[in-house]
Design a protein that fits this description.
Helices cover 41% and strands 11% of the residues. It has 2 domains: 13-147 and 303-355, D-Maltodextrin-Binding Protein, domain 2 (3-Layer(aba) Sandwich); 150-301 and 382-425, D-Maltodextrin-Binding Protein, domain 2 (3-Layer(aba) Sandwich). It has helices spanning 48-57, 71-84, 99-103, 112-115, 127-132, 156-161, 178-192, 200-210, 228-242, 254-261, 274-282, 317-327, 330-340, 347-350, 353-356, 368-376, 389-405, 410-425, and strands at residues 35-42, 61-68, 91-95, 143-144, 146-147, 150-155, 267-271, 290-293, 306-309, 343-344. It is globular and about 65 Å long. The strands form 3 sheets. The protein has a 5-stranded mixed sheet with strand order 2-1-3-9-4, with helices on both faces. It is built from 18 helices and 10 strands. It holds the Pfam family SBP_bac_8. It comes from Actinophytocola gossypii. Residues 404-426 are annotated as: Disordered.
């Protein structure tokens, strides 16, 4: 699941040489003889009912769920506990932007190919999902939970008021390319005097995830300045900001949340997990106002998704791996999707008639299962993300784009982003 990422950089270099001993509070055996497992997640994974179901299916297991409201604080605590070699849960969720930092220290995690159920094999997942969670030494660190295939959400009623087409098929021409998207934004701003999108960083991050090479190459060299496509995306987004297209909201903050209810913007880059957020924040009064289309500038991409891993701190690694395997099985992935919008990453789930037939009444009865499966199939491979990728997004580009939204020039903002990214990359 995609969320706000790490708020403060936690160095993992101090972990080299740490022994893989169990943590004091990662679970044990209760007085009643039950094996006690803990699991740590952030935002909404849709696991509350599933964990109760697992306990019913496995009466010798008792599960404690530690859930953090946002991904930033969660990952900050996670890396602190990982560095201290103490305090982590038996099963930990790791968001895709932070998995590269974990892959750099495979000795601190169990290889799921060794401790996991023998019938749970990599071919259950999309190839690129498996590659994202496999360390360079071959250690399989994470079972894939969801993915974030990209579509575009928009307000039908606001489009109609601005004289723009509003039907999901008719709007596809507006969202064919980033050039056409920003051109439509100019039309909307001229007609209404109101913003077109929520946040420059939300648009930029979607564009960034479409690039063949991102912030790092596979040799973990920073590509911020040498990859001209990053700078080109920056120029497009900041130019749109200067033309009044951004609502200048900080994603996942209070004003951003209330912006959905207050009709503060007309379009939203929309990975599948965003649907639940929109419905929750916009509220019932906007049911049917929001729509989603499978058109996305540049053809689509993936933004978000997480993994479940078993740290060496766990006192019950095989039982923990069994729980993680069950939670990420096709049946449970579909249940989580129906509850939160987190889109499945297992091949059998993507082929399931139950998933393909899933509709969403809040978004006008659209078949979201079929729509997002089509978007997922457009992703050939995941972009390589080096250590520090998530920190650059959170601590370099997003603050710099916010600075541009508050009046700093695009050139000054770019230099701020480059300087911060360089410090993070070390």
């Amino acid at each position: 699941m995609q969320t706000r990422v790490l708020a403060g950089a936690i160095s993992l270099t101090a972990m080299v040489g740490l022994t893989a001993c169990g943590g004091d509070d990662s679970g044990g055996v209760g007085a009643d003889g039950k094996i006690e497992l803990t699991i740590g997640t952030f935002t909404e994974f849709g696991y509350e009912d599933l964990l109760k179901e697992y306990e019913q299916l496995n009466p010798d297991i008792r599960i404690t769920h530690h859930k953090t409201g946002q991904g930033g604080p969660y990952h900050q605590q996670f890396f602190t506990k990982l560095a201290a070699n103490s305090g982590l849960e038996d099963v930990v969720a790791i968001e895709e932007a932070h998995i590269p930092k974990v892959l750099d220290k495979p000795q601190l995690f169990h290889d799921l190919g060794e401790v996991g159920p023998s019938d749970v094999t990599p071919d259950r997942w999309l190839d690129w999902k498996i590659e994202t969670a496999t360390a360079k030494d071959g250690t399989w660190i994470g079972y894939g939970t969801d993915i974030g295939p990209l579509a575009m959400c928009y307000r039908k009623d606001l489009f109609e008021a601005a004289g723009l087409p509003s039907d999901p098929e008719a709007v596809k021409a507006l969202f064919e390319t980033w050039e056409s998207y920003f051109a439509a934004g100019d039309q909307y701003v001229e007609a209404t005097g109101k913003p077109w999108f929520d946040s420059a960083s939300q648009v930029f991050n979607a564009m960034q995830n479409q690039l063949e090479t991102g912030y790092f190459n596979e040799q973990d060299q920073l590509m911020m300045e040498s990859n001209t496509a990053i700078r080109d995306n920056w120029k497009q987004v900041t130019a749109a900001v200067e033309r009044g297209q951004s609502a200048k909201l900080v994603a996942f903050g209070p004003e951003w949340n209330s912006g959905f209810k207050q009709s503060a913007f007309a379009t939203k880059t929309c990975p599948s997990w965003m649907l639940g957020i929109i419905e929750e924040q916009a509220g019932p009064e906007h049911a049917g106002h929001w729509a989603v289309t499978d058109a996305f500038p540049g053809g689509g991409g993936n933004w978000g998704g997480s993994f479940l891993a078993v740290p060496k701190q766990s006192q019950h690694p095989e039982e923990a791996a069994k729980l993680a395997a069950w939670l990420t099985a096709p049946e449970q992935q579909i249940k989580a999707f129906q509850h939160t919008g987190n889109f499945p990453s297992q091949v059998d789930a993507l082929d399931s008639p139950e998933l393909l037939g899933t509709t969403n009444e809040y978004f006008g009865g659209v078949n979201i299962g079929e729509l997002y499966v089509a978007q997922a199939n457009k992703v050939a491979e995941a972009q390589y993300k080096g250590p520090g990728d998530g920190e650059i997004q959170e601590n370099a580009t997003s603050p710099a784009l916010q600075a541009v939204e508050q009046g700093k020039s695009p050139e000054e903002g770019w230099q701020q982003a480059v300087d911060t990214a360089t410090r993070i990359a070390g």
